[in-house]
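FORM 7B: Structural annotation worksheet

SECTION A. Query
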Amino acid sequence: LSSLKKFDEIKKANQAAAKKLVEDQLSSSSEDDDEDAEVKQGKILDKTFNIYTSQTDGDASELERTRQYMNEAFQSGAMTCLICIASVKRNQAVWSCCGCFCIFHLVCIQKWAKDSLFLVSSPLTDDDFGKKDYPWPCPKCRFEYKRSETPSRYYCYCGKVENPTVDPWLVPHSCGQICEREFKPSCGHKCLLLCHPGPCPPCPKMVTTTCHCKKAKPVPRRCSAKEWSCHLPCGRTLLCGQHACENPCHAGDCQPCPRVSKQRCICGRQTAERLCASPQWQCDQVCGKCLPCGNHTCEQVCHAGPCGDCPRSGKRSCPCGKTKFTLPCTEDVPTCGDSCDKVLECGIHKCSQRCHRGPCEICRQEVEKQCRCGKHTKRMPCHKPYLCETKCTKIRDCQKHQCRRKCCSGNCPPCDQVCGRTLGCRNHKCPSGCHRGSCNPCPETVDVKCNCGKTVINVPCGRERTIRPPKCKQLCSRPPTCHHSTQEKHYCHFGRCPPCRQPCQKTLTCGHLCPVSCHDEALVKQAGLHQSAGPWEQPSEPAFIQTALPCPPCEVPIPVECLGQHEVSPLPCHSAHPYSCKRFCGRLLDCQNHTCMKECHHVTKLNSTADGKKVGPECSQCEEECTKPRPAGCPHRCVLPCHPGDCPSCLQMIKIKCHCKLSVLYIECLKLTCADLKEKELLISCKNQCPKEV
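SECTION B. Predicted structure
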């Protein structure tokens, strides 16, 4: 039980931490953190470019390409190793190509160089191995490096510091020192930026230089743009030697003369209009001049100089070349009658015919021929090639497929099949010929866009599934999903828009507007949908659904009078109806002596002119006895219940003894209490003779 309890506590803590992390990422505070990171990045870039911009009076227009490489170094996931298709982190050892400035993991580029050298040198024999320093190429730009240039240590971009420390206030993989690499093309100056990725910007130094044609006075200009044109005519003499260059002041050699003139061909027979830049040209006529022999004419096409001797003069050989004759140029050389003995096309046998003109016949001798692969022999004419039907079973240089060529000599050609293996990007297949080792990285790039498509970053193919989309500064353009006409302003994003926090403002049944936040898309927990199969099954997390909730009751305070009209209190609009204030009613009853002791209640007015404080039929009826004071001397109570006005006269008889105490008299209470002294003495007298002694 204790272990289960501890497990549940840890599980709840992890769930709470995960929920808090998600809320922090979705809250506005994450945007504040991003803004702080952008401010910090801007400060680092300004620090890196400070020395350069001080030389250019603040002009940073030439730094855009370098700035792009530095922004990619800062952006999470933007720098990708094309070999392993993984992100390059700031704490990993890297290597940068000096041709394309692409960054790779040091371990990846070492393995790439080793595999490339092995593939190049594997077809060599043991005698040739190691005699030539074969290069290895960059995976992206194919720039070739020597074997000795294979990286073995981790350096910063400028190459000064080995294993640079990770500093959050520097560009990742930078040492923070001045770059001092020579500019390309070399001008004698060095880069002034702090150690940085990508190419160095153009040289910002000021130099004094003249124009291309040297006619204008020297002026101070940026070293990177020191070659300039004054736009005056060049004036240099062209190669034709007759005209001057009319183009504006330019760099390099002048263009060929564009003018047209009439020029004779080499032999001088024809004249044609041609470009002044190419005065030498040949016509299509045969020379036709008589040779020194006087019997033949020159057969060369339009040429310069003398025609030369007759080609049939002097000693000439017979067709087989064994006998030489001295004959006039008008006579043909006869055959010598000896055997030809020229080597035939087979390269083994000689021509057995007598000396003859024209080509020799094909070799027709019967020989024992071996096929090209050396497995079979056959007797056949020497001029016919012998190829057997046996297919070669050797493995080609790809080490995967057989040669399968008929009668192969053993020197199997390279594999002609397409590799077709899936590349590391998992999107494309290798288009190269079948090969050994790892395939080259996918050369394609993919655009990763934000939700609205206005912000785009270009990443290597395969990284689009893991890289975070770019942060877009455009406002979200989606239509609101609640009843409001416009939604709150927020930046472009993926997924659902954040909950609307605008006041609802729907008109309630009471006529007031709903003041709470919009509740058209509230998350409501659904509980009890899944019943566990037993006590061993862990309880699942509650599911949430998005639904529209009704407006809450109206809370606008409304002054309401209580039922008995004792007080006026502000009540919420949804419960604004007459209420009991819990006091006594307090209205004067019909007896005019007591008040209604009921709890505050509704009183019906009997007529419209009646007083609001007057007792109504709902009030209690007075059931008390009359408690008004009796006349002096009257010992009786009022015979009426509690009533308004004076009590009626007391008509009860009082039993009283006379003065002499002998008789009992019955006298009305009213007469006795209203009589004065004399009348009382008379009333109490029994009218009999007094028995008292004098």
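SECTION C. Observations
The two ends are 116 Å apart (CA to CA). Residues 59-118+132-204 form one domain.

SECTION D. Sign-off
Analyst initials: ____
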